[in-house]
Each structure stands twice: as structure tokens, then as C-alpha cells.
Specification:
Elements: E1 2-5, H1 11-25, H2 37-49, E2 56-62, E3 65-76, E4 79-87, H3 96-108, E5 113-118, H4 122-130, E6 134-135, E7 139-143, E8 146-155, H5 158-170
Parallel strand pairs: 4-5
Antiparallel strand pairs: 1-2, 2-3, 3-4, 5-8, 6-8, 7-8
């Protein structure tokens, strides 16, 4: 597996992976109608027309294809904001997500790190808990025009996340 900053050539694969994961992971959490055309429109805008809106995006590649990515803004209020962490279904359990989080943790260093997750996304929440993340109280957010219950997951610093990632890999 190779980890590196995303390039313009990676953007179509990132958009496809992002949409595929939302369709799978958010089925039952979002109406199926918004997981069709509206989702495709969002991903096209996000990863082609507005790709520069993210300060940073890392990709994990294996066998010459994108198997995961982490998009983040290191200068968001409250610390480094991880806006997206996605691993392809066939690459889950390979360590790609852990590697991406470790790279983001190293970039954050002593800065706090945070993300938002749907409350109904129990698999992701479980991973973040194992990695030492602390959840906020639930709040109402909007995704594709739908109200969803979300929570914020924080780490006191990238170093704390890195330490938790190391400890979680030993268990």
C-alpha cells in the first residue's frame, strides 16, 4: 500500500469511492432517493468542480488503484478537521484506514483533531472509539437536504490519536 497526497488524476476515483461508501454505509440512514442522482451531483461538485476547497487530501493506493482517502482542513476552528475518511469495501480490514488516520495524526501533531459522524453509523463510531475518540452529544445536521443526527468525535491532539492507534493495533 502506498500513501501519498492526492493528485488531480485521483479525483474521479475518490469521487466514485466516496459515493459508493455513502450508498452502502448510509442506506437506511438517508432516503434512497437522495443516494441516487443528488449524491452523484454532490460528489461531482465536491471532487471535480470544487476539489481545491480542501486544503489536503491523502490517498491510499494498492494495485494501482485508490483504496482509501482522507480529506482534511488543518486550519479549521477547533483544530484539524477531518471531513472525510473512506476505505473501499474490499480494502476494509487491511489497515488502510489506520494508515490514513496515522498520517493525518502526524500532520496534526499537537493540534486537536475532530470529525463529524452520523449517529447511526455504528461501525465508524466503534472504530473511532477504539482509536480513542471522544464523542459529543448528538446534534442535528443536514446531508443532501435531509436532517440527520450526528455527533462530533475529537482527539486532544494528533499525537494522542497516534498513541491510541498504536495501542489499538496491539489489542
Amino acid at each position: 500500500m502506498d500513501l501519498r497526497p492526492a493528485t488531480a488524476l485521483d479525483l474521479p476515483a475518490i469521487a466514485a469511492l466516496h459515493a459508493a461508501n455513502w450508498r452502502r454505509d448510509y442506506a437506511g440512514l438517508l432516503p434512497s432517493a437522495v443516494l441516487g442522482g443528488p449524491l452523484d451531483d454532490l460528489m461531482a461538485a465536491l471532487w471535480t468542480q470544487q476539489a481545491g476547497r480542501y486544503h489536503s487530501c491523502l490517498v491510499a493506493r494498492a494495485a494501482d488503484r485508490v483504496i482509501g482517502f482522507a480529506a482534511f482542513d488543518p486550519d479549521k476552528a477547533g483544530g484539524l478537521y477531518l471531513s472525510s475518511l473512506h476505505v473501499a469495501a474490499q480494502a476494509r480490514g487491511t489497515g488502510a484506514g489506520r494508515a490514513l488516520m496515522g498520517a493525518v495524526a502526524a500532520i496534526a501533531g499537537t493540534t486537536p483533531l475532530w470529525l463529524e459522524v452520523l449517529c447511526g453509523n455504528h461501525p465508524a463510531r466503534g472504530v473511532y472509539r477504539r482509536w480513542g475518540g471522544a464523542e459529543s452529544a448528538p446534534f442535528i445536521d443536514q446531508m443532501l437536504g435531509v436532517q440527520v443526527e450526528s455527533c462530533r468525535v475529537t482527539w486532544g491532539s494528533g499525537a494522542a490519536l497516534a498513541q491510541a492507534l498504536g495501542a489499538a493495533s496491539l489489542s
